[in-house]
Amino acid sequence: MAKMRASGKKSVSIKDVAKLAGVSVSSVSRYLNGGSNVSPVSQKKIAQAIETLNYRPSALARALVREINPAIAVVTINSSQLGPTQMLGGIESRARERGASITISVPETDRREDILNSLHMAADQNPLGIIFMYPDMVDENISDFFPLEGPYVMVTGQQTMGAHEVSLCDQEGGEIITRYLLSLGHKTVYHVAVPVRLEYNRRLQGWRKALENTGSYIPDPIICGWDPEDAREIGRRLALNDDVTAVFAGNDELAIGLISGLRDMGKRVPDDVSVAGFDDHPLSGFWDPGLTTIHQEFIRAGRESVDLLLRQIPQYQEDVNSVVAGESGEETGVSKKSLDIHGKLVIRNSTGAPHKEK
Amino acid sequence: MAKMRASGKKSVSIKDVAKLAGVSVSSVSRYLNGGSNVSPVSQKKIAQAIETLNYRPSALARALVREINPAIAVVTINSSQLGPTQMLGGIESRARERGASITISVPETDRREDILNSLHMAADQNPLGIIFMYPDMVDENISDFFPLEGPYVMVTGQQTMGAHEVSLCDQEGGEIITRYLLSLGHKTVYHVAVPVRLEYNRRLQGWRKALENTGSYIPDPIICGWDPEDAREIGRRLALNDDVTAVFAGNDELAIGLISGLRDMGKRVPDDVSVAGFDDHPLSGFWDPGLTTIHQEFIRAGRESVDLLLRQIPQYQEDVNSVVAGESGEETGVSKKSLDIHGKLVIRNSTGAPHKEK
DNA sequence: CTGAAAGCGCTTACAG
DNA sequence: CTGAAAGCGCTTACAG
What we know:
Two copies of one chain form a homodimer. By secondary structure, chain A is α/β, with parallel strands linked by helices. In chain A, α1 packs across α3, α5 crosses α11 and α9 packs across α10. The N and C termini of chain A lie far apart (88 Å). At the A-B interface, β1, α4, α5, β4 and α6 of A face β1, α4, α5, β4 and α6 of B.
């Protein structure tokens, strides 16, 4: 009856409890699930048996028989970036509140097969559903990934499917910050882009759109790696070009690297060149100069994605509706099935009017 | 046969495959587990049935019957901090390499009951084992948490149990950086501490030890929150005291906040006061001035903790040993059951000799 | 090489 | 209120 675990230790099962308590397994099970239809006497005995045996029901067995595993599987690429990290925190806290556990899997690479593999591994656990972060960073059509059965939610830079999606409105953010820079008097704005396929780089698209709409000169975007060191190198190069008076970097880390590179070459920020970032990294306000950026509500995005997911599951629906009405009603997008989370411009000191001609 | 999922979609089971392929469930199972003792003809038929039904075995059922769930449960407090984040990344990548999935749970608060609850939830999944990050940040005796059955590994600031433990050697690091500051000529070093119980604040203990051993004046440590804004406030206060020429902050974010506060009051770093951090945050080198700090190998700590855990499990032991000999042999501590990971002093520009008297 | 049977730890009708 | 039975989706001896 007492089985071995991987560790070699014995594990106690419901049978052990039943035997010790002198009741049937059914009764123990009933006791475990609310205690209805179990006599007070039995309850005492069972409680005691559980206590002395230190019994805990197997979540695995339960999930199997109930055909519902109260776990949310999150698959994410770029897991070490700020966005995914903060979103994971949000997912975790909201999942805990709603009684779900978290499973995470990050694909080995960005290739389709690896992602599909992660998605499948996630699905094999028979989770409540899958939260897929940044599918749009992948060089594939997003919907290709979802012949997968079961509920899911994607967190994307921009609405692409119109359902089961939390969008961070990256394009809008890119546009806003570029416009802001232009409004300061800059002739144009250069862009140092995060390494994401151009078709899915919404921040870049917003930047381009702002330039187009204002009839500004559109320089080639400069593709950067994730490492701020790459941005630093780019900053050194950009410092050589006096036409560069304003740069929008794809994220704050890159902006910081960029500023270092600019300074390496004697440029002052923002006096000689204005630099803006994206995300509002927790340290952005402490930088010298403080970084002008777009604040992204990543934690909230994570939390909302949990609610969006659970909303698809009958057993979890009732208490979700109250949440919908309460917290996120105002911003609900296309339908209750998707959500736009808008970034907010945060103006600090890394940006300013262009240097007057000497 | 085809059951409903939480989503309401049908799920295909091994029975469906067996029926469609016209073989027994046993044969399908054998096919799934290596294909030995299955005739080529059957293999074809089974393969085809799986293909057309898009069948995937239930990880849950497998885990139940095999009595081993290839998942590692990680429970962590302070999950949004740099260390835990990077370690999680390391755990994740190493777990993937070794064929294990990851479950994470973070206690709602630091209180014993919440932590115990997380630990239990983790154990209920019957995972391969539990990796517990920073149990020593908790106001409890660590070993109290482990009447839990099953394999586990703790990642701590300092060896406390002597087994199943990856230590980051925080005390040593605190000592090294304090000594470095003293070697620069500072009379003493102030400490802005992370909000961790004093008994378990190894960085602080290292700092104190260095001061004691050199007979330096030992100022009261200044307890700070996790928010760099708190450190900024402290920096402003410290700026008022001209005796403060060197400060060691409990981590880099705090050091950055501190520098901001010092500057708010007109102090120059390092000319007026030297500031050192801890961790070697990815942005530390880009700060102006670059932060002198202790580099911590968090990612490696995460990876090693996976190996340490798997080493306790018979089914995973063979290929671990090669790893032991290969990668981490040199640094193996007390035994193969625990490991010290030493931080490294990184000298940048935020520290220097004390200001000469004017 | 193959299938029927028993069992993993639990839950859920079903009869008392 | 209670227990015996069937079943969740799989695997693993056990007989052929």
